[in-house]
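User: quick one - fold this with uridine-5'-diphosphate-xylopyranose bound?
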Amino acid sequence: MKIVVIGTGYVGLPHAAVLSEYGHEVHAYDIDETRIAAYQSGEAGNIERYVNEPGLADIVAENVNRYLFFTTDVTGVVEETDVFFLCINTPPNRDGSTDMSYYLNAIHHLGNLLAQRHNKQRVVLVNKSTVPIGTARLLESVMREHGVENFGVASNPEFLAQGNAVEGSRRPDRIVIGADTLEDMEILRRLYSQFVNHVRIRYLETTPETAEAIKYVSNTLLLTYISFWNGVGGRLAEAIPNIRMEDLKVGVTADARISTWGSYVSNGAGGSCFGKDIQSLIYQLNHAGRPTDLLRAVYNINEYQKIYLIDRAIHEAHFNFNQKKVALLGLSFKKRTNDMRDSAALRVAESLLSRGVATIQAYDPLAMDEARRNWFNPEKNYLYERITYHDSAVEAIEGTDALYISTDWEEFRGLARTIRTTVKPPYLVIDGRRMLPDFENLVAAGYDYLPVGGLLMRGRSNSSEAYSENDQAIPAIDELPQQVPA
Ligand code: UDX
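Assistant: Sure. Structure tokens for the protein plus uridine-5'-diphosphate-xylopyranose:
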């Protein structure tokens, strides 16, 4: 089939590449000429500067100019195209609603092009990026406004997680198609023919509105799992001695009805989807006059979780951040990406700076350039000058009074040893990702350890001026009272 993919970012490029692997003729369109030139070169370095996904550059290199074409002008292919995919970015507005301006520009442009078709064969216009419920209907009305003939609209949401775009596209859990007519369903069945009767892939056909809602409900449910574990399981293990977080997870998720996904307690979920989608759904439900208590609680728990350990450091460990040096390790929102959108590290840094730290010594295996972009601008916050950038975890830890692990990069699992050889106790290790399996050695050597989903453990050394003067000595773990705090 002949396909046009409009928008070649994190959603559009993997989608276009994988469709071209199936032997469709795919024209990937973007208004950004430098981006298109980079993809057209077929070189990994150029492609990954825009979308860095394992395996993606290889597929592009293999199919470019054979099945996959990059362009900033689709006028020439409009006549024979069967399906247009809209993969346009839809960032959030300040009030949580969705900024539809890029999307609207694109569909008006498309409407103009399609209105001039001579060939009046059926064409299906598919929303792939996450758009508010009702957007397929909006797309339909814009096309009518332009006088486009013989078209159908559909919703086919993208469920990919970052770092897994290629694998996720090749072997999705489900393909959800929301369309109004059998004719359009048939066209999309031909497009996804290898998935239609697949034994392990759910191929669901429904209304456009249901398909749009499936995307929002999926993402908000996933975030609900995370907030549940952070807000319930984690809180219990942080308050009551002798609860083993990992065993709690195993015991609960052994029930086949309960997901293991989301049970990894952390310092909050970030990324470009969860926060944006839940805010948008809250906005859409509010707009429909419906209560949103659960969604607001989930959102708030997740946002607070990003700075919760700083509060614990102050109130439980009685650590006084004023004029201290703190290493911040892991800046991206999850491992194996340089993406810092909605990352906990951004909130942690803001919180530390507002509490008067002398410096934040930052390190991430991939996100240093991204971090400089985020924090370079002293006009945004003059305190960003207090952030220094380092080439390794050791370098970031040197000379600090405390460290905060914010991302679950594998290399941090060996940090206990690095800490012992780099800094001396009294020293506070704040672990937002439960990354130190050998924390007990650290505590035995005198370091204080404050993990998410676990009790504060005092090192056996002694207190120091690192802690505030009126510090009420916190008992070592085995001395804690066996009762639930009020
Ligand atoms: C997510 C959804 O998984 C995907 O289906 C959707 O299409 C887009 O949003 P992504 O943002 O790439 O994908 O990241 P994901 O791997 O889901 O992680 C999101 C955040 O949750 C990360 O910060 C991650 O570290 C955190 N997380 C995840 C937890 O804190 N605990 C967990 O158990 C799982």
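One thing worth noting: The first strand starts at residue 2 and ends at 6.
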